[in-house]
Write a structure and sequence with these properties.
By secondary structure, chain A is mostly helical. Chain A contains eleven helices and one strand, in the order H-H-E-H-H-H-H-H-H-H-H-H. By secondary structure, chain B is mostly helical. Classes of the chains: A mainly alpha, B mainly alpha.
Chain lengths: 305, 668
């Protein structure tokens, strides 16, 4: 835990860079995969980068003024990148400190706050419906994340994500951590905003929901934040809950983690390709059951399994 | 001046202010300014007391008046715990009074003689509650505080809802006070004294000798304090009383009054229990009551569309957080002093934070009410452009209460949740409570995003002309919002004093400030040499700002042009009001899932006894019959006065004849 400040800064920059630069590629892989499952040709792997480049140069059409509205995309991406520095990538989280588990849970919600406020501010009824759904999804999914992380905290006896990672790498798989990992994997589908849980965006129904009035660079930044978020949550899952094999060499571990994260997201992509969208109350019921099942993991953790 | 002298000055200033504002009540704004000046002067004196209590120059107890026959004496002592709550009350009092200067002018039909004087007496009573160390005088001040707040809640006399809410408040809080009186009398019989120290000693002895009686007394005290604090189910008065009070008073109710319940809990339970064997049981009971309160209160708040009623339910929820922290602290202070102290410090810090953000939110709701006359959020929207200061401070306060880092609500929730989870390693129940607290924090967020979305954001209604509130009202809100940011980014600064307050109130040695709270750059909780938890708001806030700048740089990198466009509504033109997403539509499936969580028990509200009402109604049985009699007599007399001179002449002649006849008769 006593990484020197300079090293921590370098690792933080690495995490931010990975979240920013690799996330469009991961999204490209998932799109290609979906096309293959659908027997389509699909876009090239670099398509998300091209999308971003194109959007960044497009005209920025706004339905409302005001400073908070203007800053909302930056705050969304900013808080996602802050989340990136709280998530381990091969080593302990660069910005990690002994109570970062709670901070991570709250920061994870913060990016959604900026998005939802943007949706409400834009004045579109579709955006308002989308924002309301986004909040309900957050209310359903976040408890799963919280329970999973608390299971880790109980096992490792610490409130630091780095500590959980270290404990898990040392002690090997346990029943409680396995259940927590499965629950977190199920939550990942919604956190990535993929089918059957892309209810807030629901393109065919409410036309992108919170993002309907966003265009040009603002849309680019929001999209980027969503892609970065799915990669970060995949990293959190594979690194904290499935850290093996943990070699102890930071660059090797980092590469290994990225490969594992990609594999997990490929699985998410397959689920996305073969499922229809659920209604919001079905999704809420589903995640409530997941969270309650994850409480079983907590029970196992308490009795030391 | 000594501390008691300063306090006497503060209370005298408040009472003088009450008299002055009574004299000036006909001139609304002047009365407001005079009251603000007097409250500010009293607050200054109280702040001197506060600073003195936290410095090494603390003074011992001073007895003003002794009643040896009763075993009671009016003794005054300001320890750090009292000083901490005095600081909250002094701040909220100034802000709420300042806000009322302009706000109260729109109650044109009501005389302000029943607002400012009572408000100032109310503040004086709160100061009294916080400084006396004798239960008899504590109860006197407590009752004065309850009565004055009752009159403030029922300020709008012509409003039936406000009368009903006031009556409910009156009955419930007096039932609670009765519990406290019974508890005090039981203890007084044991030791023959009303002094806090003697009472606590008697209670500790009872715990050892007659546990059943002792736990009954503790239960009565808990009901007494928890009712005032707003813990469910006793806090049922709160969602009715807060919305109907004038907004400045709502802020004072939520910011100051309900904290007094917390003060009582810390003063008695914190001082007694941690050292006793009953600590774990009572700690868990208080934590469970708190968790039930925060769960039910917040999820009920989510369903409200009346802005002030919503915030009142959130007060119940946030008080739940405070009780949760307190309960965890009491339960594990003896076995794990660091953890217990952390929880109690977190609970007290949350009390201060709640005073800031909830007062700010009530003032914001009041500002909207002042300009639009609406509390129903379904009929509001798009006010941010017209009321930027109100919208800005309400946004900050909303995010603070929802626990968005790095605002103050997060700092204290972090302490409480961290304490819950760490305590949960030994006592798994606390794990569940911590998880519930985290989930409810998200529900709070949902609720306040709804408020922001329904009231301030979206397209404005062009038919409604709205402008920003007057400077005094805006200033009051901005000050509180600034406090929310300041306390969140620099939490370690107030926490040193809160640690002293906690240390002064519990019977177990609390770890030093540096050990408990770390250095000047972050909160570092260490126990037995190992870092348990740490939170550095400056690093997180700084990182957030830097990364947001990076993101903004990316956004602007393409140099794209900007244009204002109309909202797209399916290709058809619609007025903004017709396509609004109303407050009641938010989160509908989620609200359905928790529909029956706050049962409305329809019991018959005990009506004021009719016979008694008639007995008190002097008008009805004395004045009005007498007046009617006089009127009828006058009517009979006037019937003879027909206004014709000849008739009057005739009367004069008849009168003269009669007088002559009588005189002759008498003489003859």
């Amino acid at each position: 835990m006593t990484t020197a400040p300079l090293l921590a800064l370098a690792l933080a920059l690495l995490n931010v860079a990975v979240a920013l630069l690799l996330s469009p590629l991961v999204e490209g892989v998932m799109r290609k995969l979906k096309a293959i499952v659908h027997s389509r040709q699909g876009p090239p792997l670099t398509q998300p980068y091209l999308d971003l480049l194109k959007l960044l140069g497009k005209e920025d059409l706004r339905t409302t003024g005001g400073l908070p509205y203007a800053l909302a995309p930056a705050l969304t991406l900013g808080s996602v990148l802050l989340l990136a520095t709280l998530v381990p990538l091969g080593a302990a989280p660069p910005l990690g400190f002994a109570g970062d588990l709670i901070v991570l849970i709250y920061v994870a919600a913060t990016s959604a706050v900026a998005l939802i406020l943007t949706a409400f501010a834009s004045g579109s009824p579709y955006a308002a419906v989308g924002g309301s759904r986004e909040m309900m999804m957050l209310l359903s999914v976040e408890p799963v994340l919280a329970v999973a992380l608390v299971v880790g905290a109980v096992k490792a006896g610490t409130l630091s994500v780095g500590g959980i990672l270290a404990w898990n790498a040392e002690h090997g798989p346990t029943i409680s951590m396995a259940i927590a990992a499965v629950a977190l994997f199920l939550a990942l589908q919604a956190q990535a905003g993929k089918l059957p849980f892309d209810i807030p965006e629901a393109d065919q129904e409410i036309m992108g929901g919170p993002l309907i009035e966003q265009s040009g660079p603002r849309l680019a930044v929001f999209r980027w934040a969503m892609w970065a978020k799915q990669l970060i949550f995949a990293l959190l899952l594979v690194q904290v809950f499935v850290p093996w094999p943990h070699l102890g060499v930071v660059p090797l571990d980092a590469v290994l983690t990225l490969v594992k994260a990609l594999a997990v997201l490929v699985l998410v992509g397959v689920v996305d390709a073969v499922n229809p969208r659920l209604r919001i109350e079905q999704a809420m019921g589903y995640y409530m059951r997941v969270a309650l099942s994850a409480l079983a993991a907590l029970a196992f953790a308490v009795i030391g399994m | 001046m000594t501390t008691p002298e300063l306090l006497a000055v503060a209370i005298a200033v408040l009472l003088a202010g009450a008299a002055a504002s009574l004299a000036l009540a006909r001139r609304a704004r002047l009365a407001g300014w005079v009251s603000t000046a007097f409250v500010a002067a009293a607050a200054a004196a109280i702040w001197v007391v506060v600073v003195r209590a936290f410095s090494s120059r603390a003074e011992g107890e001073a007895t003003v008046l002794a009643l040896p026959d009763l075993g009671a004496r009016l003794s005054v002592v300001v320890d750090p715990l009292s000083a901490f709550f005095l600081a909250i009350v002094a701040t909220i009092a100034v802000v709420a009074t300042l806000y009322s200067v302009d706000y109260m002018t729109h109650f044109a039909g009501n005389t302000l003689a029943k607002f400012y004087p009572i408000l100032l007496v109310f503040f004086a009573a709160i100061v009294g509650v916080l400084v006396v160390s004798d239960f008899l005088f504590f109860l006197v001040c407590w009752e004065l505080m309850t009565l004055t707040s009752f009159f403030l809640v029922t300020f709008e006399r012509e409003n039936a809802a406000s009368q009903r809410a006031g009556w409910k408040y009156f009955v419930i809080t007096h039932a609670a006070t009765l519990c406290m009186v019974v508890a005090a009398l039981v203890l007084w019989r044991q030791c023959g004294s009303f002094h806090f120290g003697d009472l606590l000693a008697a209670l500790a002895q009872l715990l050892a000798t007659r546990p059943l009686l002792a736990h009954t007394v503790l239960g009565l005290l808990f009901i007494g304090f928890a009712t005032k604090a707003g813990v469910l189910p006793m806090g049922d008065w709160l969602p009715d009383a807060h919305p109907v009070a004038p907004s400045g008073m709502s802020a004072a109710l939520s910011g100051a009054l309900v904290k007094l319940g917390i003060y009582g809990l810390v003063r008695f339970f914190g001082a007694l229990l941690p050292a006793s064997a009953a600590a774990v049981g009572w700690g868990i009971a208080i934590a469970l009551a708190g968790t039930a309160s925060l769960f039910v209160g917040t999820l009920t708040a989510l369903r409200q569309t009346d802005s002030k009623r919503l915030m009142a339910f959130h007060t119940i929820g946030q008080i739940g957080y405070i009780c949760l922290g307190l309960g965890v602290g009491i339960a594990c202070l003896r076995t794990a002093p660091t953890l217990g102290a952390l929880a109690i410090v977190g609970a007290l810090f949350h009390a201060a934070n709640h005073a800031c953000f909830k007062a700010c939110l009530f003032l914001g709701a009041g500002a909207v009410l002042y300009r639009t006359g609406e509390r129903d959020m379904n009929r509001l929207g798009g006010l941010a452009a017209a009321m930027p200061l109100t919208a800005g401070s309400s946004t900050v306060a909303s995010l603070a209460i929802a626990g968005v880092p790095p605002l103050n609500g997060f700092a204290s929730k972090w302490l409480i949740v961290a304490a819950c989870l760490l305590a949960g390693m030994a006592q798994p129940l606390f794990l569940i409570l911590g998880l519930v607290a985290m989930f409810i924090s998200l529900a709070t967020l949902a609720s306040f995003l709804k408020v922001l979305g329904a009231v301030f954001l979206g397209q404005p209604n062009p038919e409604r002309r709205v402008s920003e509130v007057p400077a005094t009202m805006a200033a009051a809100q901005v000050v509180l919002a600034a406090l929310c940011v300041l306390l969140g980014v620099l939490p370690f600064w107030p926490l040193r004093f809160i640690r002293d307050a906690a240390a002064a109130s519990v019977p177990i040695a609390v770890p030093s400030a540096s050990e408990l709270l770390g250095g000047p750059w972050g909160l570092a909780v260490t126990g037995g040499g190992a870092a348990l938890a740490l939170w550095s708001p400056l690093v997180v806030a700084g990182g957030m700002v830097v990364l947001a700048f990076v993101a903004y740089g990316l956004q602007r990198a393409g140099g794209a042009g900007r244009r204002e466009v109309a909202v797209w509504t399916g290709g058809e033109e619609h007025a903004a009001a017709t396509v609004r997403y109303a407050a009641s539509s938010f989160y509908l499936p989620f609200k359905h899932a928790f529909a029956g969580i706050y049962p409305r028990i329809r019991w018959r509200v005990p009506a004021f006894p009719g016979g008694l009402r008639r007995a008190f109604d002097v008008d009805a049985w004395a004045y009005r019959p007498a007046a009617r009699l006089v009127e009828r007599a006058a009517g009979a007399v006037s019937r003879s006065h027909v206004g014709v001179p000849q008739v009057y002449l005739l009367w004069i002649v008849v009168g003269a004849v009669a007088v002559v006849a009588i005189v002759l008769g008498l003489v003859g």
